[in-house]
Amino acid sequence: MFDPQKVKLRRARVTDLGQLLEVENACFSYDQLSRRNFHWMIKKARSIFLVLEYESTLIGYGLVLVNRGTSLARLYSICTLRSYQGHGLATLLIQDLERRSADDEDCAYLRLEVKEDNRGAIKLYEKLGYRRFTKKDDYYDDGKAALCYEKRIRMLTTPPRLDVPYYTQGTEFTCGAATLMMAIKAFNPNYELSLSNELQIWREATTIFMTSGHGGCGPHGLALSAWRRGYRAEMFLSRSEVLFLASVRSEEKKKIIELVHQDFVKKIAETNIRVIKKKLTLADLREVLKKGGIPLVLITTYHFDNNRVPHWVVVTSFDDAFVYIHDPDRYHAADHAGVISRVHIPIPEDQFLKISRWGADRMSAAVVVYPD
Length: 372
Known about the structure:
The protein has eleven helices and 16 strands.
């Protein structure tokens, strides 16, 4: 006779790999983790990996992955063998994962995906306080959609969020265009989020050469692109000099950057685009969000992937502890990171101030887009 009181909850070990595969194969017929996946999750991933053990036999597991540089954790996978279900073990597992995510990893949110037809799991998650915040069509190998849920595991208040549709950039170099498209879509639901529109904005707004590869969008170009499409825009700039000159060595490229910058400045002077010569502060951020503006902020990805690359994100909300962003980039994310790891990402306020300053001189740039 099965006795739930004898079930032990402990960290996964490499010696569990064989039994973990048996549990995985018994519980899932799609998107299965391999032995290599499990080994990586135990040894290298920033994870909380717990197993349910009964009389030396593994009967289930729960795996949480923690997003680097954020306060977001993701319930990546959880299961118990069918013959041991109905005894509250999944609840026990989830609650312990929540506690460890909050206490050990300082996470504020735990998110998860669940197959749209998995009614039992959906009922459990909703009973435990998870709320649905988006849906991803054609997510699983069999074509089924995923429902995305989240729970605030630190602090009980939930901040209001701007209703900004999420869009993943189509190329490695069009993050600026992707963020502007998200802002436009928030104001105009009929706007098409397409690669064609993305590349058109990128062509208009590109202002710089990187050390290699394609150029990227600067704040002047993005502000002009928003204005040309009928939206009011303002820029926060900590410096008025030509941006990103230090990112290239070629004198020829530097001259081109200077000419493009001067042309953008001249064109902006002929519009109603407001240029605010100061670093964007948290107080500024709160103020523009309250006024209905959508901030596009230039950050460095160093705290996410150790690369000092300028990158555009959309700010969607704030509260007393966090700034929330949409990150359009799937390229610097780990292979296991899904869309729910890039939507409304909670960034601690002090961390956000660090990532929104770029280069040796801590340059700051942001473009705020308003509906009219």
